[in-house]
Structure formats: structure tokens, C-alpha cells
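INFO batch 0412 | record 1 of 1 | parsing
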Amino acid sequence: MAEQATRTDLSTHLAEGRTYLWALRHSHERAQTPERQQEIRELFAKVGVNGSTLAALRELEHPIARYPHASVARPTHDEYLRFEIADFHVYLNGALCERGLQAGIELFPVNVDWSFCHTEVQYCTGGDTPIEATLPSNRRETKRIRPGDVMVIPKGAHLVYQSSRDDNRYEHAHIFAINVGGMTGEVFYDVFDLTRLQTMGLIAPDDSPVPFHDIAERIKIKTWSELLHVDPSRESDRPTWLRNGWSRREESRLLNYHEGTDSLVIAAPDRGQGDYLPWGEGQKRCYVNPIVAEANSAICDTHFPAGYRCMLPDSEIWTVLRGKASVTQSTPPLHGETIRHDVAMGDLMVAAGGANISIDDAESDFVVRRLAETCAHNRHAQMMELKLLDQGDAH
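INFO prediction complete | emitting C-alpha cells
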């Protein structure tokens, strides 16, 4: 009965406009007299507003800044869930599901015809797969994605993945990652984790639990360090914001941020760790190899040495591709708590926006693939410009 009463109270508060911010406004009334303070106390007591109620209402208040939790997860190839989507099926193993950030692993075993309601990044781990893309501007592109490629799919794009070639026994597989802003709270695929809770028996299923599938033999790249392999013959798309030339890159980038990227961008690592570019000074010094720098996503392989420290202003998803490290993050906005994780190859990690991040200990080959929401965040555009200057492509 108490639980039902609480639910009723919250429903009544919301229906009558008594939100969390409504309650806070009462602390800022001008010329507040002792008599008015007593009226507010009596009002709160009458309608049932107390500390517990405010804590619950705060969770329902969209404008409150919501920083993603500094989660770490390691998806494995024996715990895929099969989902029937439209007229095809996919195998999915979700790993991260935080505010604005999601990641996991996925296999497309058949032709897939799909429109994306969000920007998605894919790190290809299997299949030499032709793609027919219709972009938001209705422009059409024909692409091919191969193991080791990085692909950025713009929001609103329509993609048709074809079956892999006859001489390639691996189907199209990838690590998927979504970064739409840590404080917007958008989550698209929470059903993955909800179904997983039921399959694991952690909550009672609505129906028969969906079983896990082991499809490891259908995935070509299972050792994620192989994603760092450099193939000199492979071409990569240049940043969209260079379409008007190097001399006008600032104007193009500003336009790009406003209109969004209307390109299906595919790129791949083009240098080994020993040739990464130094970035930052002192404790903020790391070594970077930018791969993609678009208005809707930026991907950069980064070697973080032990002792690295930095406050990260915008959230990223880190995919550990090689080595081990101990990573500590403070919890914004007041940084009163810290979260520490020991991570290694195969881990997916949330680097929370605004957190103080430190690499307390790391092997010399510790490399992560960073995904930012846009190259306007965390200096990804500047890192790409540095790389283009270094390799003589600034024209």
C-alpha cells in the first residue's frame, strides 16, 4: 500500500505541475518573510513534498544535467541475442547503455535494409560487404566495408548491406557505438539490456526468456588489437569539412557543424603506434592518430601513457584495442567521488564528460579508440588538422 501511495503521489505531483524545479523555485522568492516561509512549509506538508519525493521528482526532470556513469563492460561472443527486426534478423550483444552513449557488438547474417534514426559508428570485425547508401539529401553512394574499417553513418541515412562475397565465409560484423551527447539522455536500444536481464534470470521474463547464442566462429576479428593493423593500400575518406579546400576549412567546418555531415564516411588506421602524433603537454601529453573527424562523429586512436591526467569536457566512448591500464574518473559536477576500473583489450568504457580522468598505471602499448559526438568536442578537429599537416595533405 505504501508503494502504491508513493506512485499516486508522484503521479499527482506531475499532473498538477509540481515538478522538482517547481519546488526549488520556492527557495528564491523575493522578500520572503517568516510568514511566507511557514506557508511554504505547510504547502509542502499538505501535498506531500519531502526529501524522498524531491529525489524521485529530480530523476524525472529532463533539464537536470545527467552525466553518464563511468561504466566498463566486456561483450563476449557467446552471449549474443537474436532479434527479429522488420523482415530480417540480427545478433546483438549490448555492452554499454548510459545517457547518450551505447555500444556493443553485432552480426548481420543476411541482407539488411535499414534506416538509421541516429548517428552510428561501426568498427568492422568481419565480412567484405558492399553497401548501397541513400543519404539524407537523397544522394546515393556505393561503398564497401572491410574488416578493420571504421564507418560513420549519418542520422537519416538508409543503408542496404549486401551479403558478403562468396569467397569470404565471414558475415558482416562490427563493434557498434552511439554517442549523442551525455546530458541529453537519449537511449535507443535499452531493450538489449532489458532482454539480457530476463535471459540471465535477474528479473522475471514477460514470456519465455530469449536464449544466448554463441556465434564466435562467424566473427573474423575477435582479437581487437587486429583493428590497429595498417594496410598501406587502403584508402580513407578525408574529413567532409575539407570539401571546399584547406584554405576554406574553417568556413566549411562551421557550415558542417550547422548542417550535419551528409556523407557515409569510411576510413582505417594509417600509421602504427610508433608514429602517433604527440598531443598536449606535461601530464596531458598523449599520442594520437585521428581516423575520422566529422561534425557528427570523431574517432581517434590514442596511446595514453601512465600518469596521464586531464579533465574531459565532453563524453567519449573508449574501446580498448591493446594493452592494460588502471583508469580513475571523478564524478561530475562536484567530483566528490571517484570510480576506478582496470581495463584491458576487449573492454568498452565510458569516459564521462567533465570528469577528471587519470591513467594511474598502464602498459607501454595501451591504446584506446576514442569516439566523440563531434570533432568540435575535445579538440578532435585540431588533432586531424595536425595529422594532415604532418603527412603533407594540407591542400
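INFO post-check: The chain has three domains: 2-59, 72-227, 240-390.
INFO record closed
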